[in-house]
Amino acid sequence: MTDLATVLTGRAWKIGNSVDTNQLAGGGLQGDTREETLRINCLRGIRPDFPGNVRPGDILVAGENFGCGSARQSAVEALQLSGVAAVIADSVARIHGRNSIALALPTYAVRGISELVEDGDEIQVDYPARVVRNITRGGELPLPTLPQSVTDIYREGGILQVIKRRLEKDGIVAPALN
Amino acid sequence: MAAVFPQTIAEKMLSRRNVTGQPVRAGDMIDADIDGLLVVMYEFFRAAFGRMGFPDGPPVVWDTERVYLLSEHVQPPPTVREAYANLNARRDADRLGLKNFVDSEPGVCHQMMLDYGFVRPGELVVGCDSHTISYGGINAVSTGIGTNEAAYAWAFGKLYFTVPETIKIVLKGKPKPYPFGKDIILHLAGRFGETFAQGRALEFTGPLAADMDIATRLTIADHAVEIGAKFGVFDADEKTIEYIRKRTDKPFEPVAADDGASYASVIEVDCDEIGFQVAKPFRFDNVVPVGETVGVKIDQARLGSCANGRFEDIEIAARMLKGRKVAPGVRFYVSPASMTVYKQCVEAGLIATLLDAGVQVVDPGCTICQSPGIVLNEETCISSTTRNYRGRFGGSQTSEAQIYLASPATVTASAIAGRITDPTEYLQ
Lengths: 178, 428
Description:
Number of strands of chain A: 7
Low-confidence stretches of chain A: none
Structural class of chain B: alpha/beta
Largest sheet of chain B: 7 strands, mixed
Largest sheet of chain A: 7 strands, mixed
CATH topology of the largest domain in chain B: Aconitase, domain 3
Structural class of chain A: alpha/beta
Number of helices of chain B: 14
Strand order of the largest sheet of chain B: 13-12-18-17-14-15-16
Helix content of chain A: 25-40%
CATH class of chain A: Alpha Beta
Distance between the termini of chain A: 25 Å
Order of helices and strands of chain A: EHHHEHEHEHEEEHH
Mean pLDDT of chain B: 97
Shape of chain A: globular
Number of helices of chain A: 8
Strand content of chain B: 15-25%
CATH architecture of chain A: Alpha-Beta Barrel
Number of domains of chain A: 1
Oligomer: heterodimer
Number of strands of chain B: 18
CATH superfamily of chain A: Aconitase, domain 4
Low-confidence stretches of chain B: none
Largest interface: A-B, 46 and 48 residues
């Protein structure tokens, strides 16, 4: 989880169009925990090298319609558990886009990103400057400005924090935190 | 507040529910009051509250009558973990006084929402499953969300929405004597691509939309998400009202577009020109006429799901299988979409016909759309379910398993022949 104000620099993993939530969190190999199962299967069907080689801070670059298919919040969790710091896609499927906001994984629709970036390039996601840069090859594309209702959720660290704060305002405080 | 400009269905619905009461148009971002929330896979939903510091489940619910909690996704529970999910749902529903809790019942949530009259025309409904969009078939404005957003809706009864642009799809042609919704939506996907409605609303209208039955409308609305849509809505007519009135006596107010509403585009489709369609692996828009896939040997066939698991879908399979057998070496799984549908099929004698033909009738539920019934990398399946992405029927180890999507008639004909087959001759 990262605040949008942080400038992220990382190695790009490039994947194609219409990578659906099954590829991100569709099960398969059994891990010892739910988290482990998510991590070891993430993108494994189309990039068998991903689960073993992805490093914290890496950035995923996807084509059109990223995250299409089932409404799986675990698809975002799988990326976070893999250490992915941000996602840039030519376009993002609606539910997955909302889930990425809800879990505060910076995810941007930037048309042309697949042409700007090759697999393994070092790229920089600079939301304060509204730009994504290819450090390896040069070139950049503008990042969209997100609506305030969305940046508020990122600033809180996800929608659960928003819910918790609002419940507290109504006098409902989590017992586990008392 | 009445709008001062003509509105699409999406604009009108979100204007009605806008928390500020102001009329909205495409592009506006608003908070809206929702009419209903579907929650499934309660284990994950409850865990969201656990992460907020509520280990015993949600402390509150915004409205005990407007939350629909269905323990249906994995029933009967095969593991202790899933049995506990049922137990926790039961306890929390009792503690919070939920009026609409369905306990441990096999089925596809979306069909159960319809069967139980939980969703009605002109309602704004969200649910934590992408095919929540299917209620557009009965003129509800509905869409899928994630688990944590559902937790927000559960607590506060509101959610943020971007008011979508709308594409109007005018359907023309004659109804057919077998379920043909799948062929229409596959045709649209093949022709325009699976992102053409991305983030937009679809309105399905025209003479054929009026002539088609509710089951066909539900198939098309269900698959609106496969072409990226946020909403996919049909008008309410006498058939809609009759369908709803058989299931609930709760009041409702249908929603219709105004004359002169502004559309991103209007597309006319002559459905008489559309034959049987097949989506090849591994995309919903990888569509060809069935003739181009005829002869592909299959190992498995599937019929069911929120897309095509209704009485009408199973009836055509039974009609085609009467006096015939499933091909040797083919596993044909048929799953009625709900216990209500299952009972209808039993009473009509359909299930006996299927069993005589060698069909494996499996419990209602969403598993018909995933695994068990794994399709291996060496195997091929043709299915009337919702999706054909890599590993859909077995996870990351089965990413080469070949999955084709088609209408119930095409799936059944293929199961009989053991190869992908044009169903025309079996329908005579």
